[in-house]
């Protein structure tokens, strides 16, 4: 039988089709670097590992432009690309996609989007108007939180970020940034809460109303129950409510706004459960539903594991309980266990 001699291209294709994760990362770094010399004005490409929320670590390519006056260092994350590679997409096509995305990010950076961050990092008054609060589960993010300015509230921690205007980029606020701004953490927290109240109006509506009032483009048109004076007690019908803000972005930080939680209690006319739907919204469930804490916790856990909530948007599995009389919220499971020990009702 005659021996089949494979071409160089065929041998390279076989190697590419057998790459493991680390080999894939090294391959794309090399190929993107080669393409960058010609197509991205010699941009420097580095492979980095970046700690993310919820105990995640992601690998990405950092695009560092050499263009004079630009300071952007956008990142293209590779984990999703490796999944696409495993699903059968050609490595060479994925490299082209990365180069295209990197070019787009660098264009934004060179057009001042990312340079604006550098300006804001030097001037807190400029940065302040673009600060947002992002909530995370303290226990899940203990390692990640060491790098970030944060403030614990119950099971959660408030972290802070700068949203870059007119882009999808944001910059987490780290301790060294406070030193550069020469402000204490308490001032950052106070200013951030004030900005959330002034610029990101809280909204709440029943889930039924949200579904019925959302148009084909996904824009929320439901009536906001938080508008105007409280005129009725509507907690007895067992309706589930959404709590977020007008932009539906980082809406879970409303947990830090005591006056809003108190107002919801007045509207419902009773205590309520707070289900951590995502970092962008919370679900409010009146205690009149008679659901057990275990049932609610399992429901949240299942949703979080189903892929319905993206890993970047995942908040927590921990259900909370708001007590109208005490005007405070706490971990619902710990509260239920305490009530059992006291001989009270099992919630």
Q: How is this structure best described in words?
A:
This protein has 347 residues and is α+β, with helices and mostly antiparallel strands. 40% of the residues lie in helices and 20% in strands. It has 13 helices and 13 strands. It has helices at residues 8-17, 21-39, 79-86, 91-110, 113-122, 124-128, 142-145, 175-181, 185-199, 207-213, 258-268, 293-305, 332-341, and strands at 44-52, 56-64, 75-77, 131-137, 150-153, 156-163, 170-172, 202-206, 241-245, 272-275, 282-286, 320-323, 328-331. It has a six-stranded antiparallel beta sheet with strand order 8-9-11-10-12-13, sandwiched between helices. Strands 4, 5, 6 and 7 form a four-stranded antiparallel beta sheet that branches. A three-stranded antiparallel beta sheet has the order 1-2-3. A hairpin with a 3-residue loop joins strand 1 (44-52) and strand 2. Helix 2 crosses helix 4. The protein is globular, with a radius of gyration of 24 Å. 33% of the residues are buried.
Percentage of residues in DSSP E strands? 15-25%
First-to-last CA distance: 77 Å
Q: Unreliable runs, pLDDT <50, ≥5 residues?
A: 1-6
How many individual helices? 13
Helix content: 40-55%
Could you give the order of the helices and strands?
HHEEEHHHHEHEEEHHEHEHEEHEEH
Strand order of the largest sheet: 8-9-11-10-12-13
Tell me, briefly, the overall form. globular
From the alpha-carbon coordinates, what is the Rg to the nearest angstrom? 24 Å
Structural class by secondary-structure content: alpha+beta
Largest sheet: 6 strands, antiparallel
Number of strands: 13
Mean pLDDT across every amino acid position: 83
């Amino acid at each position: 039988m005659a021996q089949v001699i494979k071409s160089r291209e065929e041998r390279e294709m076989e190697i590419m089709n057998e790459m493991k994760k680390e080999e894939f990362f090294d391959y794309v770094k090399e190929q993107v670097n080669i393409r960058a010399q010609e197509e991205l004005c010699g941009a420097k490409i580095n492979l980095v590992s970046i700690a993310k929320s919820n105990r995640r670590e992601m690998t990405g390519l950092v695009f560092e432009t050499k263009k004079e006056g630009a300071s952007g260092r956008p990142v293209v994350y590779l984990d999703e690309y490796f999944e696409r590679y495993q699903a059968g997409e050609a490595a060479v096509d994925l490299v082209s996609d990365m180069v295209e995305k990197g070019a787009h990010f660098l264009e934004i950076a060179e057009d001042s989007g990312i340079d604006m961050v550098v300006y804001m990092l030097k001037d807190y008054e400029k940065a302040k108007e673009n600060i947002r609060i992002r909530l995370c589960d303290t226990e899940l993010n203990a390692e990640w939180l060491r790098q970030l300015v944060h403030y614990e509230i119950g099971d959660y921690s408030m972290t802070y970020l700068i949203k870059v205007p007119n882009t999808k980029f944001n910059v987490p606020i780290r301790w060294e940034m406070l030193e550069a701004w020469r402000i204490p953490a308490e001032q950052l927290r106070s200013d951030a809460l004030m900005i959330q109240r002034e610029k990101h109006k809280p909204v709440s509506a029943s889930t039924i109303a949200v579904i019925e009032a959302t148009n084909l483009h996904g824009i929320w048109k439901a009536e906001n129950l938080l508008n105007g004076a409280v005129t009725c007690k509507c907690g007895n019908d067992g309706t589930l409510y959404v709590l977020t803000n007008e932009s539906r972005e980082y809406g879970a930080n409303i947990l830090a706004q005591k006056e809003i939680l108190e107002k919801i209690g007045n509207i419902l006319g009773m205590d309520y459960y707070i289900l951590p739907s995502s970092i962008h919204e919370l679900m409010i469930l009146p205690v009149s539903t008679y659901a057990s804490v275990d049932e609610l916790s399992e429901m949240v856990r299942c949703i979080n594991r189903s892929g319905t909530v993206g890993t970047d948007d995942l908040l927590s599995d921990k259900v909370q309980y708001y007590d109208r009389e005490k005007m405070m919220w706490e971990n619902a499971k710990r509260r239920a266990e305490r009530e059992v020990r006291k001989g009270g009702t099992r919630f």
